[in-house]
Design goal:
The structure is a single chain. By secondary structure, this protein is an alpha/beta fold. Helices cover 38% and strands 17% of the residues. The chain is built from 15 helices and 21 strands. It has a 9-stranded parallel beta sheet. Strands 2, 3, 4 and 5 form a 4-stranded antiparallel beta sheet that branches. The chain has a two-stranded parallel ribbon with strand order 11-13. A hairpin with a 5-residue loop joins strand 3 and strand 4. Helix 3 packs parallel to helix 5, helix 7 packs parallel to helix 9 and helix 14 packs parallel to helix 15. The protein is globular, with a radius of gyration of 21 Å. The protein binds 6-O-phosphono-beta-D-glucopyranose (BG6). The site of 6-O-phosphono-beta-D-glucopyranose has 14 residues, from loops. 6-O-phosphono-beta-D-glucopyranose binds next to loops.
Length: 491
């Protein structure tokens, strides 16, 4: 029978990640991660990494997600710099207050990530850090006591720094077993508390990122990206298998950065190009995680960059046996690609392309495309036929306090339009089981800015780290609360 409106047990909620929210970066034994060394360059608005070179000089460079530090250099924090992720939004101290706000909103589910380096500071230890475990146990219990189901991401761009610097990061097969140990520890320690897990956040970004080089990414960069992805796919499949064996109640999802790629014209070359973007950027990762095998077109992708994967028979078996239970993804925008010359280029959230004349763009240049969300849901449903969850979506905007209030009607409109498309998709037969809007409580954006805010709740902190961290409900708070109360009847 056709579903009218949102299913009655629809999982409404919000999402945050550890390094963007928790703060307390060096408290209770948490080990460092690369992001702890990122500052925001006020002049360019870009993130820079700080490090010392082999002669002890203090250096800053734009290396985020890019190549490793030069030989002989080490990540370092400098006293005259501000590191936004060191404080996040103080979730570490404020989590009870934040969870109370989530309850007031009516959340059924709350997505957060576990910081690997709180549990295993270097990533190689045998025994977990008890203080890290107890922090998350307290958070999960608090959520449960408030009637909210935790949705836990195991990796949100926060590999322990030791593994990156000393072991070569995800280019090293050993990372799989270090991750296995961490992930299985979580599974066991949080049994009964956590029912929903996601393995790697926006796992496909490794490839999407290379497209942002506009054709200038080297073969070597592609080879590394495909290898890193393979090890992550295998690690993900190990966790899914273990979860299914260990606890029948646990469900595991993938986490794909969901960007539909549109052709800029009806030129068949543009159509073909947009297909290639979808294959490389979206389907390659999704197929392995959801179908348990590499797609046929993988051969074509590898040939382009002479990729030879380190891959074993056991890996292939594990991938087959460890497919996810549901398809989860983030959705912020669509992207337009063309083979033709264009000067009007735009980019956002790991997708670059040309401007879409039919769409509006946010202050940060991200396309506003609610219908693109429905289009993506349809594509994915056709291909995988799995229950789906949208685990990130939202509007990053520069909210301004007026008489102590935030009148974010633009965010209400954004939510309204995206939720309306979700409702239509459900009516068309899509099995959508949940929605966690991104950054429900203002947090540090991936680009390091505090002023790019996503929340329903404002957090008093600026880009220099000044502020009281006071939480203030925005107008969108009441809107989303009503949506949840009426189970999406009133949008
Ligand atoms: C996703 C990430 O890519 O987009 C989040 O999973 C991130 O960590 C979000 O914050 C929004 O991006 P940004 O750059 O606006 O914070």
């Amino acid at each position: 029978m056709m579903q009218v409106g949102f299913p009655k047990d629809f999982l409404w909620g919000g999402a945050i990640s550890a390094h963007q929210a928790e703060g307390a970066w060096n408290v209770d034994g948490r080990g460092p991660i690369k992001r702890d060394y990122l500052i925001l360059d006020k002049k360019t608005g870009k993130r820079l990494v700080t490090y010392v070179d082999e002669n002890g000089n203090h250096c800053k460079a734009a290396l985020e997600n890019g190549p490793q530090l030069p030989k002989g250099c080490h990540y370092a924090c400098f006293e005259d710099c501000y590191y936004p992720d060191h404080d996040g939004n103080h979730f570490f101290e404020h989590y009870k207050e934040d969870i109370a706000l989530c309850r007031e909103l009516g959340f059924k589910i709350f997505r957060l990530s576990i910081a690997w380096s709180r549990i295993f500071p270097k990533g190689i230890e045998e025994k977990p850090n008890e203080k890290g475990l107890s922090f998350y146990r307290d958070v999960f219990r608090e959520l449960k006591d408030n009637g909210i189901e935790p949705l836990v991401t195991l990796w949100h761009d926060d590999t322990p720094l030791y593994l990156e610097e000393e072991c070569g990061g995800w280019q090293n097969r050993k990372l799989i077993s270090y991750f296995d140990h961490y992930a299985l520890t979580c599974l066991k320690e949080f049994k009964g508390l956590v029912k929903y897990y996601l393995t790697f956040n926006e796992i496909n970004n490794v490839l999407l990122f290379l497209d942002m080089f506009n054709g200038n990414a080297t073969d070597e960069m592609y080879r590394k990206a495909y290898q890193e992805l393979h090890y992550k796919f295998v690690a993900s499949s190990h966790f899914v298998k273990a979860a299914h064996e260990y606890d029948q109640d646990v469900k595991v999802g993938c986490m794909i950065c969901g960007v539909p790629f549109y052709p800029a014209s009806a030129d068949p070359k543009d159509i073909m190009l947009s297909l290639e973007y979808m294959q490389r950027g979206i389907y390659y990762s999704s197929d392995v995680l959801c179908k348990g095998e590499y797609p046929d077109f993988a051969r074509k992708l590898y040939a382009k960059h002479q990729v030879r994967l380190d891959i074993s028979e056991d890996d292939l078996k594990d991938l087959k046996e460890g497919v996810v239970d549901f398809y989860s993804f983030s959705y912020y925008m669509s992207s337009v690609v063309t083979v033709h010359q264009s000067d009007d280029l735009v980019s956002g959230n790991f997708a670059a392309g040309v401007r879409n004349e039919y769409l509006d763009y946010s202050e940060w240049g991200w396309a506003f495309d609610p219908l693109g969300l429905r289009y993506f849901l349809e594509l994915i449903n056709d291909r995988y036929r799995l229950p789906m969850m949208i685990v990130e979506n939202g509007l990053g905007a520069n909210d301004v306090l007026v008489d102590g209030r935030i009148h974010d009607d633009y965010r209400i409109r954004y939510l309204h339009d995206h939720l309306s498309e979700m409702k239509k998709a459900i009516a068309d037969g899509i099995e959508l089981i949940g929605y966690t809007m991104w950054g429900c409580i203002d947090l540090v954006s991936a680009g390091g800015e505090m002023k790019k805010r996503y929340g329903l709740v404002y957090v008093d902190k600026d880009d220099e780290g000044n502020g009281t961290y006071l939480r203030i409900r925005k107008d969108s708070f009441a809107y989303y609360q009503k949506v949840i109360r009426t189970n999406g009847e009133e949008l």
